[in-house]
Amino acid sequence: MHMPNFAEIKDRGKKDGKYDYIGYSPNVFTGNVVQRIVPGGDLNDVYTGYLDLIADFALKLEKAGVPVIYRPLHEQNGYWFYWGAKYCTSQEFVNLYHYTVKYLRDVRNVHNFLYAISPNGPFKTKEEYLDRYPGDRYVDIMGVDTYDDNPPGPAKSDPWFKDFALTLQSVNDAAKLHHKIPALTEVGIRDGGSLAVSNNKDKDWFSEVSKMVGKTDMPYFMVWSNFEREPHNFFAPYMVSKTRGHEMINKFIDYYNEKDSIFADGVTDYSQMPTPVIINK
Question: How many CB atoms lie within 10 A of CB 42?
Answer without folding.
Answer: 11
